Amino acid sequence: MIRVRFWGTRGSIASPGRATQRYGGNTPCVEVVGFQMGEPGAAVRSDNPHLILDGGTGLATLQTTLMSGPWGRGQGELHLLLSHYHWDHLIGIPFFRPMFVKGNRIVFYGSSIEDLRSSIERLFTSVYSPLKGAENVAADLKYRQVEPDGMDVAGFQVRAAENRHLGTALSFRLQYGAHVVCYTPDHESGDREVDAKLVALARGAQLWILEAQYTAEERRGRDSWGHNSHLQAVRLALEAGVGMVVLFHHDPAHDDGILDRMGLEASEMAAGTRTQVLMARDGMVVDVE
Ligand SMILES: [Zn+2]
Ligand SMILES: [Zn+2]
């Protein structure tokens, strides 16, 4: 099975506070772990297939569990796939403690090796970081360019396709055994060719984690802002026929009540189909079995 844990589900900027306490306010970070049959619920060991999607502020809460394992002893290997380099998807990285333990190996993946390397290294330059340079990060850092047609990452078969966003942003399809999870942050539906590629990428997935930042009304006034409405997201999920769609990258201005309503409307739209709709929450776990 694949266990998916949502550590950050908010788009654009972290939004903690009473109005968002049920859904949470951390920016994108999703942990994906593969389990062999017969070990559901097992604790994550360093030899389980294990990767992290995006490095938003959710990374700060994930690190606590990692530091109690091999990553706290300098014996961990971590694979971090970055959809793109907008701040909301990177901002947890300068504060990510496994990077400061000698012996750990951290591999970053992104759409262009130059952009990937410079985006990460820039976070540690002296204007931003007391470390005064990525060369002073204790862990061994590696950079790999995503191969869209397929590559092995930490035991997962990974494919990628480009979203429609402001600059290059990627969707990932992760396969482990017979199980498939697809991840699409930061995408604006409307370009038929791009949408068709994403639907093809997600087809057959049991779970699609899909960007749904705006209400339908907000979306109407925000052409080319690079984000879906919740209804556009459900439309894509129904087209791909996925088992479950989890809507995420919530707008920072949306309180729990608005997200409840969006979830209801999205579920109504998918009623009578085979696709189940869930709203992502920080801390939520979905097992794909
Ligand atoms: Zn974003
Ligand atoms: Zn973005």
Structure described in brief:
Helices cover 21% and strands 26% of the residues. The chain has helices spanning 58-67, 113-122, 192-202, 216-220, 230-240, 256-270, and strands at residues 2-8, 29-34, 50-53, 77-81, 105-110, 140-145, 151-153, 156-162, 170-176, 179-184, 207-211, 244-248, 276-279, 285-288. A seven-stranded mixed sheet has the order 6-5-4-3-2-1-14. A seven-stranded mixed sheet has the order 7-8-9-10-11-12-13.
Describe this structure in words.
The chain is of the alpha/beta class and 289 residues long. The chain has a single domain, classed as 4-Layer Sandwich (Metallo-beta-lactamase, Chain A), CATH 3.60.15.10. The chain is 21% helix and 26% strand. It has six helices and 14 strands. The chain has a seven-stranded mixed β-sheet with strand order 6-5-4-3-2-1-14. It has a seven-stranded mixed β-sheet with strand order 7-8-9-10-11-12-13. α3 crosses α5 and α5 (230-240) packs parallel to α6 (256-270). The N and C termini lie close together (5 Å). The mean pLDDT is 95. It binds zinc ion (ZN) (2 copies).
